[in-house]
Amino acid sequence: MQFGIFPVGDVTMNPTTGRTPTEHERIKAMVAIALKAEEVGLDVFATGEHHNPPFVPSSPTTMLGYIAARTERLILSTATTLITTNDPVKIAEDYAMLQHLADGRIDLMLGRGNTGPVYPWFGHDIRALPIVQARLAERALLPAEHLVDGGYTSVAIRDNVARLHQIELLGPIRAKRTRQSRKGNVFPPDAFTIDWDREKVICPQGKESSQWATPPSIAPLTRVKFLQNDCGACPVKAQCTRTDARQLTFYPRELHKLQTRARAEQQTRDWWTRYTRRAGIESTINEFVQGHGMRRSRYRSQDKTHVQHVLTAIAINIERICAQLPPAIAPQLRPPTALQGFLDWQHIPRPRSWRSTD
After folding, report:
1. Whether the Cβ atoms of residue 357 and residue 336 lie closer than 8 Å to each other
2. What one-character DSSP code corresponds to residue 53?
3. Which domain-ending residue is among 238, 265, 292?
C-alpha cells in the first residue's frame, strides 16, 4: 500500500485568515507540499490539470518536471491529464520525455474531466444542442418541447432557445449551492429581496446593498455587495458570511424571473411526470451503447457507419415490437398415423421429418 497527497490546486480564500492567495503563491505552496511529502516519507504526489479559474496548474508536465528535479524517490502522478482537450500524440511525447527526466517515477492518469467553457479555447465545439436544433429546423421537425439533461438547462440557454426556435427546454435547473444552503442557515440567496427598479438588494435584517454592477461576461450576471460597516455590526453575521461584507450574484431581471419560475415548476408532480420520459430516452441510448456497441464503428467511412446505425436502430425496434406482442401459441401437432403407431409398437425409430405428439 502507498500513501500520498493530492492538492486540489484551488486558488480560493483561506477560511482562517480570510485572504485569497495569488496563483503564484498557490503554485509555490504546491511545490513546497511535494518537497515536504518526500521529506516525511510519503510515496506519491499528484496534481491535476486545470484550465479555468480558480484552479492551478494548467501545465502539470512543467510542475512535475520541476518537482522531479528536486526530489529523488517520490512518485509523481497526474490526477488527471485531460484527454478531451489535449492531443493524444502530444500527451505521449510530453510524458515520455518527463518519464526519462524523472527516472521512471511518473504515473500517468488519464481522464475526461472538464467544464463547458474550456472546450472552445482548444478549438472544440461542444454546442451539441444548437447543432441538433438547427438540423431539426432545416427538416421542419422542431418539437414544441425538448427534454434535456442538466447540462443544457442554464437559464441563458433556455431563454435563447425559446426566442430562437420557440422551444421549451424541459430539464432540471440545479439550485445554487452555497455554504448557507448546505448548512441550512437562515440567509441563503433566496432570503434577500431584490428591488429591480432602485437596483438595490435588501437583506433579511433590512440593510440595503451599496454596490450594483453588471460587469462584462459571457453569461450576464449582476453582482451586489453590502457595506462592510453594516455587515460588521450585524448580530447574525456568522450565519450570513465569513467575509467582511456579504456579496450576491444573480441573473438580470428577466432571466432571474425565468429561473425562479423554472425552479418552482420542477417541484411539482406534473413537471416530474413530463420529465420521466427522459428516462426512456436515456435507456434507449444505453441500449445502443452497451448492448450494440454504437460507440465503435465496424466499418470505415461515414456512409457505411450511418448504414450500421440505421440497421441497428431497425433491429432494436423489431426487438421491442416482439417484446410487446403476446406469446406465440405452440403449434398443435397432428396425431400419429397408423403406420407411425405400428413403428412405435415395433420399437422402430421414426425419421426426424415425421411429426409426432411426443
Report:
1. yes
2. T
3. 265
Q: How confident is the model over 145-160, as pLDDT tens digits? A: 998 887 777 787 888 8
CATH number where 9 lies: 3.20.20.30
What are the pLDDT digits (tens) for 183-238?
A: 555 677 888 899 999 999 999 888 899 889 887 665 678 889 999 888 888 888 88
Whether residue 87 sits in one domain with residue 8: yes
Q: Classify the C-alpha dihedral 32-35-39-40 as positive or negative.
A: positive
Q: Which helix (H) or strand (E) holds 82?
A: strand 81-82
Burial class of residue 42 in the structure, from the number of CB atoms within 10 Å of its CB (0-12 exposed, 13-18 middle, 19+ buried): middle
**CA distances (Å), origin 332, targets 88, 328, 353, 355, 358:** 63, 12, 16, 10, 11
Would you tell me how many other CB atoms lie within 10 Å of the CB of residue 244? 15
For residues 76 and 68, is the Cβ–Cβ distance under 8 A? yes
**What is the amino acid identity at position 217?**
S
Cell triple for 227: 457595506
DSSP assignment of 244-285: SS-EEEE--HHHHHHHHHHHHHTTSHHHHHHHTHHHHHHHHH
pTM to 2 decimals?
Answer: 0.50
The three-state secondary structure class of 81 is strand
The CA distance from 34 to 239, in Å, is: 36
Long-range Cβ pairs for the range 155-162 (8 Å, 24+)? 155/251, 155/255, 155/256, 155/258, 155/259, 155/262, 156/219, 156/220, 156/251, 156/255, 157/129, 158/258, 158/262, 159/254, 159/255, 159/258, 161/129, 161/133
